Amino acid sequence: MNKPLVTVLLALYNPNMNWLKEQLVSINNQTYENIELLICDDCSSSVDETTIEVLLKKHITRFPYKFFRNETNQGANRTFELLTMKAYHHPCNQANQNRNEDHYFAYCDQDDIWESNKINTLIDSIIKNNAVLVYSDMSIIDSNGKQVSTSITKYRKRFKYYEGKEVWKRILVRNFISGCCMLVRADIAYKAIPFEYGMQHDRWLSFVASINGQITFVNEPLVRYRQHNSNQTGILKGVFDKQSYIEIRLKKHLEMLQSVRNRMNEKQEVQSFLNIYIEHVETRLKYASGKASAFIKMLGYIKYNIPTILFEIIALKMPDKIFKRMIRIIIEKNL
Prior knowledge:
about 45% helix, 9 strands, alpha/beta
């Protein structure tokens, strides 16, 4: 076919079979023609291989697919990395075995629903803008499929989208590109291997894409993102008190940045930014640990993330009981 090949990469783990069915149907109903689907089950304990294969055979009818299963549980990042490697070297369709030019990857969660024009719209945009990665907005649905919000920017009050040639700086500070909404050139995704395990796969792929070319944005909700208790991501996932905030939002973030810096030896501009930004996070950690002398330096770094710095300056000096209450309010109100 003349149109570029799009390989959809779907990672599964203990899927809700009704939600998975809806996702598969939405992929099968894509208006774009040249699609294939590669699925990896990460050694699910709640559903067996045969049950998944029966569902695939029933609902994926318009294009080729391949299914494999990890022998042991690897986690989401590693599973998406395995999918990326397999898709790059061994496309599902025999006619595409030696073809990596004009090849794109669409990363897929097991519980969302894609709008039928998703792939077609993203392909048109990535080609038109000569980009290496394109992503879209998404609407929010609840566990029953009922719409909660027409856009994540309305659901999460401080959420913003960015595009351009150097958005990697913003990605390092705070991710705004969801894997379920992205389409990335296959050769760029392959450059991201091995994935950075301190980051979610979508954040790492977006970062690598941005240091290799332009990222563009489609201001249209092309995915219905299902919000439920088992979601992998969340603005304060795992945070419930001061100590967990320090561990997750500061220490783990710092470790991730240091790991990325170690991998950027040939990218001087990235290294220079990371040196400054790591010092900024270290200052926040010192302040959180009770060093009042870090306060003035904290103010000097406020440009990186004004709401977060102001929050930490005030909230980290509060009694833990009040801090816990504030965290609950932030999560409930999606602030």
